[in-house]
Amino acid sequence: MKIAAIGQTSASSQPPRAKIRIGTLQEKKTQHEPISSVSLGDFASARLADEAGIDFILVGDSLAMTLLGYETTLPITMDEMMHHTRAVRRGVRYALVVADMPFASYTINLEEGVRNATRFMKDAGAEAVKIEGGEKRSDLVRRIVDAEVPVMGHIGLTPQSVNVMSGYKVQGKSLEAAENLMRDAVALERAGAFAVLLEGVPREVAAKITAELSVPTIGIGAGPDCDGQILVFHDLMGLSTEPPAKFVRKYADGAAIVSNALRAYKADLESRKFPSDEESYHLPKEAQLALAPVLTRKRAVVQ
Fold first, then answer.
1. d(CA 139, CA 222)
2. How many CB atoms lie within 10 A of CB 195?
3. Are 246 and 203 in contact (CB under 8 A)?
């Protein structure tokens, strides 16, 4: 009988992990269990997040900045988002995969919005899409849901509206603004959204919206009273090049870890410590003996 190591449980004693679906998130809200989420855009990070038990992965358009080097999320295209969604899909077995619809992919007309949403499902393997905007997007959300594509809403600080908002600013700080956010959230739920992401809003407003809605709320810079939380992978891993926002908690100094590893690698190369003999492949002894005369003749020719 194989004994598990101290501090570990045998694989056979662990219950099989179930695929996370939209109904799972709804059950978590009902049972007051926190929903975990990370925004990322590559295969390796997706695999690690999935193995860590994260509930849903957002292929967020923030990858425009973290992975592609754009200054904002606005330039990223449908083709780029599709490419990264496919990569994430290949790294995930259990988490729900939600794709962010990029700027101008759903705002020109309803038909194009529906078509692009279905592309994420059909051609990239997403299981849902996320759309920025509240009440004014309710008709679009309804149409997309009618096309059998689940939709997550996104209100508050919506980065695609950075120019309209004159920067990345907390939303819902006045009574009128808070009431508008509440109206937006309710309109999205009534249109069929399965969840609403609340970004950059006061804790009290997010708590009120969470209590009002029957669907889950996911917070980012919205306090601890939401049904779930999401952070950008590069922010929580300490890999971002920009100063973090107030709501970001850095769980690792990834930039220092990677930088130190690369410096150590370069130093070992320069000092001839890498690769070592143990890290090299060798011919069998018989082949080495047979090859020795050939190597000697070649060496003599070169000399």
1. 26
2. 29
3. no
pLDDT at 297: 64
DSSP string, 65-123: HHTT--SSSTT--HHHHHHHHHHHHHT-SSSEEEEEPPTTSSSS-HHHHHHHHHHHHHH
Q: Is residue 10 part of a domain?
A: no
Statement: residue 108 has pLDDT above 70: yes
Give the CATH number for residue 130.
Answer: 3.20.20.60
- Clarify whether 199 is annotated catalytic: yes
Which tens digits make up the pLDDT trace of 118-156?
A: 999 999 999 999 999 999 999 999 999 999 999 999 999
Q: Of 80, 189, 199, 212, which is the active-site residue?
A: 199
Task: Tell me the CA distances in angstroms from 213 to 35, 172, 207, one per residue in order.
Answer: 15, 17, 10
Q: What global pTM score does this model have?
A: 0.90
Mean pLDDT of 42-51: 98
Domain check: are 249 and 275 in the same one?
no
| Res 8 pLDDT > 50 | no
Render the burial of 37-66: b for 16+ CB within 10 Å, e for the rest.
bbbbbbbebbeebbeeebbbbbbbbbbbbb
Angle at CA of residue 218, ends 227 and 82, nearest 5°: 145
User: In this structure, are 234 and 265 located in the same domain?
Assistant: no
Q: What is the domain range of residue 250?
A: 16-256
Whether residues 248 and 267 share a domain: the answer is no
Could you say which of 256, 271, 286 is where a domain stops?
A: 256
Going by C-beta distance under 8 Å and a sequence separation of 6 or more, which residues neighbour residue 213?
185, 186, 189, 196
